[in-house]
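Quick one - inputs below.
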Amino acid sequence: MNTLSKRLIRSAGLAVATFILGTWTVPAAAAKKVNVVATLPDFGAIAKEVGGDKVNVTSIAKGSEDPHFVDARPSFIRVLNQADVLLEGGAELEIGWLPPLIEGARNRRIIGDAPGRVKFSPAIRMLDVPAGPVDRSMGDVHPAGNPHFWLDPANGKIIASTIAATLVQVDAANAAIYQANLQRFSQRLDAKIKEWTQAMEPWRGTHVITYHKTYDYFLHRFGLELVATIEPKPGIEPSPTHISALIPQAREKGVKLIFIEPNRNRRTPEYLAERIGAKVLVLPGMVGGNEKVTDYISLFDYYVRQLKDALGKSP
Ligand SMILES: [Zn+2]
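Output:
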């Protein structure tokens, strides 16, 4: 066979290949859903609202886990390998468990400054940002400020719009759908924030103690006051001396409630509650933390209901 024939055959082969790709991959791509992986179920829940039936959403942490110490099973490496988008809180929340999964996944769509790599913390007005450097050897798990920002429903709107902007970028064909879903979710959330604010109005100024600094954004939004935490520092378990020091402080401030997450040991909070005449409220720190908290809005519905039940109809 001469060179010209070889070249003709090769280009014909190329044409056939192009044709096959053209006819096969385009419909497949149109039907393919965007694979979204969320570090936390709250980000996943909001991604479902914004992405609707155009996305597959997988969340790594379970709602009952401590988001700082997630059991990051190696099976998530395969999930991350197939991800088009990774949603992450940032502010060092996932630093203890996410980096090895990302490294193992070797997926350039979610590495570095790829459009599929999303961190929410830079868009959020963070609480508890330290004025100076924090010594990590002290064990403080909030060295870059308080990372539990999804517990202010107003931040849920920022999370949703960040997700929508990302989906529009990685799946432009469905941009109008994402924008419409975002608008619908934001309006629903606005209406609920108004409702929750009204319901919480009688309890403004209520003094509470929490186990970890999980609920600060919620307290800040609805005007409740954090008197102290059972942990002396985020991530550090309390000593008996610390608990003894909390008792007079809590009595002086008239603390009526102690908030704890479902994964905490109840012994210390109950000991303290008994001595100061307070109630222990178990409030999931994330969506899925109990069977009643199935999506982002039901998380706050649950909080407001629990608070009303604990505090009574009027102050
Ligand atoms: Zn924390």
